[in-house]
Known about the structure:
- With 164 residues, the chain is of the alpha/beta class.
- It contains 6 helices and 5 strands, in the order αβαβαβαβαβα.
Amino acid sequence: MSIAAVLEEAYEPPPPHLRAVGDRESTGSEPAPGASPRSHRSVLIVEDEPAIRETLRVIFQFQGYETVEAEDGAIGLEILRDRYVDVLILDLHLPKLNGVSLLQQIDPPPPMVIIHSAFEFFSPDEVRKSTGSKVFRMVRKPIPPPQLLSAVAAAVSELENLET
Length: 164
């Protein structure tokens, strides 16, 4: 069973007497449970490990983000050239085109780039030297979901500051 199916199966709305003021019954057109006003922001997940990619997708969709996925750096770069995304979650050790090479071929901002890596092939200092100011934040795998969501929220906030 996929992680998404487990989360969807496990979700139960609170009973009416526990709903917050303003809560209402679902009409079927709202974002997923747990979604927030961020629902119009997009996240591109470039990760070669299918289980990690799916987990990240579920976490971000559950919080209301639109997600796009790429299983290697070449596909990620193609997506970035074809469409706008707000935040890029990027592994470094990828097939076809590694994360550092991908970053060297895109222009900032956006997307706001969050490196999500174990840093076994590239050190954070090597990434900084190779990519300049293109990286918003670097986080080491494994990272607890609340910390990763906090990094994405900070990236979106920074993006909103740049847009105004």
